[in-house]
Amino acid sequence: MSGGTVYFTEGPDAAPNYIFPMYSPQVCSTANNNQLEYMMYRPLYWYGNNYRPTIDYNYSIGQQPVFSDGNQTVTIKLNSWKWSDGETVTSRDLVFWMNVMKASPATEWCGYVPGYFPDNVKSYSAPDPHTFVLHFNKAYNPTWVTYSELSQLTPIPLAWDRTSLSQAAPTSDNGHLPDTTKAGAAAIYKFLDTEAKKLGSWTSSPLWRVVDGPFKLQNFTTTGEVTLVPNPDYSGSPKASISSLVELPFTSEAAIYNQMRAGGPSAITIVNLPSQYAPQVPTLVSEGYVDNKAASYSFNYFPLNFNNPKVGPIFRQPYFRQALQHLIDQAGWINAFLYHTAIPTYGPIPSAPPSSLVAAVPTGQNPFPFSVSAATQLLTANGWKVVPGGTSTCEKPGTGAGDCGAGISAGEALAFNIDYESGVVAVQDEMNDLAAQARKAGITINLTTHPFATVIGTAVACQPTQPTCKWQAENWGAGWIYGPSYLPTGEQLFYPGAVANYGSYSDPKATQLIQATITDPPSEEEQALVAYDHYIATQVPVVWGPTSIGTYAGDAGTLVAKNLGGYAANALGFMNPEDWYFTK
Amino acid sequence: MTGYIIRRLGQAIVVTIGVTMLTFMLLHLLPGSLARDVLGPRATQPEIAQFVHQNGLDKPIYTQYWLFLEKLIHGNLGYSYQFNRTVNSLLASDLPRDLVLGGASLILSLVIAIPVGVAQAVRRNGALDYAATGVSFLLYSMPQYAIALLLIQFLSISFHVFPAEAPQAASVTGMLSHPSALVLPVASLTLVTYAQFSRYMRSSAIDTLAQDYIRTARAKGLPERLVLWRHLLRNSLIAVVTLVGLSIPYIITGTLIIEQVFNFPGTGLEYFQAALRNDYEVMLGITVLVGVITVMGNLLADIGYAILDPRIRY
Fold first, then answer.
1. Global ipTM
2. Is B163 at the interface with chain A, CB within 8 A?
3. Could you report the per-residue pLDDT of B279-308, keeping only the tens digit for each?
4. Do A254 and B259 make contact, defined as CB atoms within 8 angstroms?
């Protein structure tokens, strides 16, 4: 049946705070991207349907890309889509996106990796309104281009091609629109970025009203409640059947659970259940929910800041990172804190959802199983005077075998800070346990806690002299869900200079292995990924933690009201509410 | 009385200026940089320098304080860079909702606590007194969140009598259109406050009952109802009036736990999150507001004394 309102729960204290789909790492979150922007401003390609990390061309604006010129050129034909203001979605809208992206600060794009998109795009053009052409600086693996570069394209409307709201929105390309010059495009970025942060004006702004996705924003309250209604001019298929999608903000995990128990499926239609309530799933199922456990293409980790002037030299030592990984009791955490709603993580390539690429990568054994004694031995063998229950100090400074390592002075204490996401009980329990186990190995971990947005915003790649480099370890509790590059090739996370390489990890061998996953011919792709995954797993460039089996990090699963049809887990956490309908 | 009120208003202004000065200085001592927090970790040094200059942060602290006072006098509490909204607009959306929740619980707790406290005093060491004392101690010793969760468990989850959430409407009229959603959060706040007020009321009434004028009134043959109403209640209320005056700021920021449990984002939660996010101007604005309300609450309590006790003349 058509009509009805779907009530969807936002994460605790994680309401959307950005609406422009060209997002920086600070606002690169599922709350902004998957749960808001993508439903209104459709990316060129739509990924993850049918619980596969692949493209669904039926849901995409772009048709299958055609590679030519020895894989240096890609041509994309566009389907006939319309913007809600009546304009046609054309290749000019992709040129507009590219112009703005090229002109904006590189570090303001969540997916930026030096040397790759958009740096490796030699030129781009729109030979006709339905054709977009990209020329790369060299040949790349077409699969990688399709999943990791074309995924970073989103058509944006001409109505945004201006630098202030007082300017009239252009309706046609006269050849002299602001984005055609670099300075103009930079000014547009600045304008749109500023407007996107004005939460109070999202609903009234003429900018955000122009959409090409299946939904449009009807209301956004100051408390973070989002109301999306179907875009009547949506060109794709299927058209939305529900009358509205309301995303509800919550102040705590307890408030989510209480509301579910009290109101049931009529109060909350879809909930990503916090892991602490996993034991309650049978009760909730008996009250009218269906439990969907579908891990997204993600893995859990938290970064260490290799460039922190104080503890960076310690973090740069592989033996220290391996010792720290030995102190992560993944099995214990999964059992005690996550109620078996997570799986252990040993490396960067997810073991779910099913994918031909992932299936080729053996999950392997944990190279660093939980063991305080193993951690202690590693530290002792590398020049530390381990003081169980106290703070160990460097006894043998130097760079030789058995020494503490470069940049670590004699008597230096083994102590650092982890700042973690507040409001999530499981993350708090995990960090407390890690600090307790570390204490046994003579590592002092000081814990601080901040809201998700603060934690993820603090973790930035930096140079030791910069004031932003004071952070030591940041755990925002959500790890990494692959995007806007959807092939798990690692350049976004571990490539020197990449925006999402928050800890500034740099290892020539890792860089070489990542490059191989990008430029090797398709026939060697699996082998390259295996080599990359195994090397990274042993180097521990970030600290691995249990990965949720729910769609989003920290979820015990997605509970969906029994009377909601059409819901299917998306491998990348995208939302397809245009598929949903009420059965009664 | 008028002279007294004018004098107290003058004192209140001085105290308020002291509060703003102290708060302003303390917030400036916090680690971190407003420019960095506002512009983000990737801001360049020139951008930071420009922001610092544009916002007068490179001026001496007393000049900055003066500028802040100037804005305050014009009713401008500052700007939240985290929310891209003025602090005034944040408070304008949160405060009325908090006043409904906190105000309702304050009134309700007084309405219950005053007669119960008087009845306990009059029937001191009787069954009613023991029972009411037991209930008060029980409620007083329970953390607010425990009361809230118990109420939710029984009245929302087990018996579906009331919603587990406070009203989600942004406006007061919207909130009032869902009275059932107000019941549990108001009850959670009321039960704790009631316990406190009733203990004070009982104690004050016992003291008053021992006064000569009560004995005299009874000796004159005044009906017990009038003794209690005219002499006991009025004189016993003085202690509670002080408590009420001091409780007024609590209406605004004291509901943090209730806001968390009942999914009711209000000023308390706003302040807590501002502290976590280094949103200085929100912290400053709310602190100043609470300071002003505290001073005003005390002033109202003092005026209340004079109304209740004719012997008090200023």
1. 0.79
2. yes
3. 888 999 998 888 888 888 888 888 888 787
4. no
